[in-house]
Amino acid sequence: MNWAILLVPVVLGTVLQLWLTAKQTTAWAQELRRLRPLGATAVGRGGRRYRGGLAFVAVAVADGRVTGAFTLRGFTTFARPAPLPALVGVRLAVVAGDRPLEGLTQPERDAARQAAGLLRTALATRPGATSTPGTTAAPSTAGAASPA
Fold this sequence. Notes:
Sufe protein. Chain: A; elongated; alpha+beta; 4 strands; four-stranded antiparallel beta sheet
């Protein structure tokens, strides 16, 4: 009977964690669906897990400018996507560069740079490619591109 006293909280904690993870994933996917019609989309990851936290940034680009962006940052499954208006209207080349951008934390800046790099590579390597609404960047091992 003593083992049940230990096992029940572990099982309940695991179920709670799985539920919170599913809620977070659903919220992320909904935001990404809203972003896709705004242009070619890509996701970047920046930061370190235990030093300042991870940040994921999704970016949509049309005609060489960011048309929409949001971020997911934090340490836990309680983190939710938040808009990133500091990137909207900025040229893709500036986001991909090294210059600091006002309104972004360092992990967000790193993630935005990675997403912009993925988009630049994907749009440059596709013959006749333009960043039209609804397109998606090619997947890379460096980061994740949004699925079609």
